[in-house]
């Protein structure tokens, strides 16, 4: 009876955990449309298949990670990867390298995206925009991170609702029928684009795995393997629907935003401008700018919280000064990266990190991870060990505190 009762994971709990990954994926990077344009739109109909495969790979990977983490009562992602790679525990450093490089890319993308938005709305020089956004992020990181972090979930929700509204309206307002576009593309290309579609699916899932530390922290209330699976299947549906909608809309307006100079940087904004719905464009721009700045602040705050405790900073008694030093260093590095432009960061920075993510996260969890989880559960049973109440945060409360990783895409 006890096993049967534990096996029933409430839908609300599974939904809240699945929504964390959805929120992570639907952050500022997704809402710009740059990721979808870079990895899927150019593939035509095969891009739709690629997007579905990417979301399947991502959610299956997260499921195995949560099962391994919860079944053994772990407390850090370091323990998780040491268990995954055992007996080659030191390979865990590969994930550390992937994680920190990917987060730097995410901060750079946030700064670059915000600067591009300022350029698009106010005509501000792009490089001046980088400096302005960098200074705003620095000030908020030192003095206002808590407020921005707490509001980040609501800003993410606002940009999500706005973006999906644009996707839906854009599909119907386009002069080109999405059905006709896909049919014509299939007739012209056939299955020739599928090899690249598979590669892009793995790459996309690979760099999205930067959210893994967030997911295992938010997934601790799930008490068994079925619960983890339920949460991730819900997340798969949510993520796939949103991503495919964005691809449909961008395919419908591809000829418009590619014809505008700089239109592919934030293609969703360019398409929105072409629709002629001024209020929607304004709301989208405000939400996008706030979400990108929030991404930068919360992501850097996660770095600060970890590195300001290093021995080299023990001589500095003032917490704001320690935060300022660490934040300034990270922002300068990120601003330097952002000089190459949002599209290059997404294509090359995210792309190469995606390759590393495939090697150190996706493939290991979907092969070795599956084997180890099944063996462990056969030996110890389906029910996961109960954590102490203070170590087991609710998924809802975990979202703001883990947002640094969640908004990294």
Q: Summarize the biggest pleated sheet.
A: none
Q: What Rg do the Cα atoms give?
A: 21 Å
Mean pLDDT across every amino acid position:
83
Q: Which regions are unreliable across 5 or more consecutive residues at pLDDT < 50?
A: 389-409
* Coarse structural class: mainly alpha
* Tally of distinct domains: 1
What is the highest CATH level, the class? Mainly Alpha
CATH superfamily descriptor = Amino acid/polyamine transporter I
Total helix count? 18
Element string (H = helix, E = strand): HHHHHHHHHHHHHHHHHH
Give the proportion of residues in helices: over 70%
Total strands: the figure is: 0
Instruction: Quote the CATH topology.
Output: Amino acid/polyamine transporter I
Task: Give the overall silhouette.
Answer: globular
- Architecture (CATH level 2) name: Up-down Bundle
The fraction of residues assigned to DSSP E strands is under 5%
Kindly report how far apart the N and C termini lie: 42 Å
Name the descriptors:
409 residues; mainly alpha; Amino acid/polyamine transporter I; globular; disordered C terminus
Kindly describe this structure.
It is globular, with a radius of gyration of 21 Å. 79% of the residues lie in helices and 0% in strands. Mean pLDDT is 83; it is low at 389-409. The chain has helices at 2-7, 11-25, 28-32, 34-39, 45-71, 77-85, 92-122, 126-173, 178-189, 194-208, 212-218, 225-257, 267-275, 278-307, 319-338, 342-380, 395-401, 403-406. The protein has a single domain (13-406), classed as Amino acid/polyamine transporter I (Up-down Bundle).
């Amino acid at each position: 009876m006890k096993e049967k009762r534990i096996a029933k994971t409430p839908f609300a709990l599974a939904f809240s955990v699945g929504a964390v990954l959805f929120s992570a994926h639907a952050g500022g990077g997704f809402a710009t449309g740059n990721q979808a344009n870079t990895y899927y739109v150019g593939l035509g109909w095969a891009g739709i298949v690629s997007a579905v495969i990417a979301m399947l790979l991502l959610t299956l990977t997260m499921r195995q990670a949560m099962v391994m983490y919860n079944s053994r009562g772990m407390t850090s992602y370091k323990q998780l990867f040491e268990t995954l790679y055992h007996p080659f525990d030191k390979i865990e450093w590969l994930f550390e390298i992937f994680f920190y490089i990917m987060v730097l890319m995410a901060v750079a993308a946030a700064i670059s995206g915000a600067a591009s938005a300022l350029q698009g709305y106010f005509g501000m020089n792009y490089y001046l925009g980088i400096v302005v956004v960098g200074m705003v992020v620095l000030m908020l990181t030192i003095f206002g991170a808590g407020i921005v972090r707490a509001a980040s979930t609501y800003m993410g929700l606002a940009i999500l609702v706005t973006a999906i509204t644009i996707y839906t309206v854009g599909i119907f307002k386009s002069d080109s029928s999405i059905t006709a576009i896909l049919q014509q593309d299939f007739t012209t290309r056939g299955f020739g684009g599928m090899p690249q579609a598979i590669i892009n699916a793995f790459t996309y899932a690979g760099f999205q795995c930067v959210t893994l530390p967030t997911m295992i922290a938010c997934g601790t209330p799930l008490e068994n393997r079925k619960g983890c699976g339920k949460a991730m299947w819900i997340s798969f549906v949510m993520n796939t629907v949103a991503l495919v909608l964005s691809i449909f809309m961008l395919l419908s307006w591809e000829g418009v935003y590619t014809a505008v100079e700089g239109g592919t940087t934030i293609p969703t904004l360019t398409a929105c401008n072409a629709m002629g719905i001024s209020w929607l464009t304004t709301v989208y721009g405000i939400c996008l700018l706030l979400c990108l700045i929030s991404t930068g602040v919360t992501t850097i705050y996660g770095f600060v919280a970890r590195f300001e405790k290093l021995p080299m900073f023990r001589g500095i008694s003032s917490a704001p000064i320690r935060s300022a030093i660490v934040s300034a260093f990270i922002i300068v590095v990120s601003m330097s990266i952002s000089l190459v432009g949002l599209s290059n960061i997404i294509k090359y920075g995210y792309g190469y990190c995606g390759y590393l993510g495939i090697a150190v996260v996706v493939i290991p969890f979907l092969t070795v991870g599956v084997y180890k989880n099944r063996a462990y559960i056969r030996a110890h049973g389906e029910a996961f060990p109960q954590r102490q109440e203070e170590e087991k945060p609710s998924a809802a409360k975990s979202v703001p505190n883990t947002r640094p990783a969640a908004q990294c895409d």
